[in-house]
């Protein structure tokens, strides 16, 4: 698997993960593995495992409000361990302080509302790939 790349999606709602995996798989499935985790702890474990296999993870897509580690904290922890990871937060409930922190601490490509628009999500990823 060496040399592959992955997009990691994190949400505690299974239906959201299925939708993300389906939508991203249709558009990016030939270029990226699409991996999912149901919470922040599992996401960090997944990132560690992918890294150990030599798989680059350029994109982390995460919900904000989840049990355990919230999305803004997950982004911070992930970027501390994997500085090249860029994040997209998808949320219907993030407070303005959390959004501000995400933007100020860097690595956040965008904050999309729930329900997200597929075109916005794809455009955010494609824009980061191009730039």
Write the layout of secondary structure elements.
Blueprint: E1 5-10, H1 14-28, E2 33-37, H2 40-52, E3 56-63, H3 71-81, E4 86-91, H4 96-104, E5 108-113, H5 118-130
Parallel strand pairs: 1-2, 1-3, 3-4, 4-5
Throw out a few tags for this protein.
single chain; 131 residues; alpha/beta; Rossmann fold; 5-stranded parallel sheet; 24% strand
Summarize this structure briefly:
Helices cover 47% and strands 24% of the residues. The protein has 131 residues and is α/β, with parallel strands linked by helices.
Query: Which oligomerization state do the chains in this entry correspond to?
Result: single chain
Q: Give the helix/strand class.
A: alpha/beta
Topology order in helix (H) and strand (E) letters = EHEHEHEHEH
The CATH class turns out to be: Alpha Beta
Number of strands: 5
Structure explained in plain terms:
By secondary structure, the chain is α/β, with parallel strands linked by helices. The protein has one domain (5-126): Response regulator (Rossmann fold), CATH 3.40.50. The chain contains five helices and five strands. Helix 4 (96-104) links the parallel strand 4 and strand 5. The two termini are 26 Å apart. The relative contact order is 0.17.
């Amino acid at each position: 698997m060496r040399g592959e790349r992955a997009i990691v999606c994190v949400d505690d709602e299974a239906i959201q993960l299925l939708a993300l995996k389906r939508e991203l798989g249709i558009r990016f499935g030939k270029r990226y593995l699409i991996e999912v985790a149901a919470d922040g702890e599992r996401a960090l474990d997944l990132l560690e495992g992918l890294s150990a296999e030599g798989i680059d993870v350029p994109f982390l897509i995460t919900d904000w409000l989840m049990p355990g580690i919230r999305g803004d904290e997950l982004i911070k922890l992930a970027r501390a361990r994997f500085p090249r990871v860029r994040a997209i937060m998808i949320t219907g409930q993030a407070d303005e302080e959390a959004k501000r922190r995400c933007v100020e601490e860097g690595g956040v490509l965008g904050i999309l509302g729930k329900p997200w628009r597929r075109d916005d999500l794809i455009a955010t990823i494609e824009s980061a790939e191009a730039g």
